[in-house]
């Protein structure tokens, strides 16, 4: 089974710079913990006024927080694939004028994490602040035997901001024509996002 590093990327996207008012602190969105009880009902996010010409909506919407902000179409597909660790935090996306342009979006909060990174074979530097987390990857090596067979889209225990998807999930995303993301083969990935 192959795995891919999953990154949100899109051109001229309506860029989101803030979480909805009343949201949990930003760092909590990268911990793999449930946020549903603390997330505001009826939350809204808006395109950044710093990028007035960027207005495009994608299935995975770029945002400064590096969270997975997912369209209703992508959510249905992910649910149909049986991704069991998905927690959905619904939001509406507004354009620069405050008009709702994406009524059915949600932050996808992936719960838990997998011991997917082979710490012996990978080349990396640990984070200076979060001592148990990798700060920089130069060459990623996976320990696929440590990944649960039903793990399809997940965080890595030693780098919780790193999202991996299984090859069948990637194929389903491609076949459905989902937009706003790029993948890199995980084994040997050099940490660059080109």
From TrEMBL:
Pfam families: Imm11
InterPro entries: Imm11
Domain Immunity MXAN-0049 protein: from-to ranges: 44-186
Protein's name according to its UniProt entry: Immunity MXAN-0049 protein domain-containing protein
Species annotation: Myxococcus xanthus (strain DK1622)
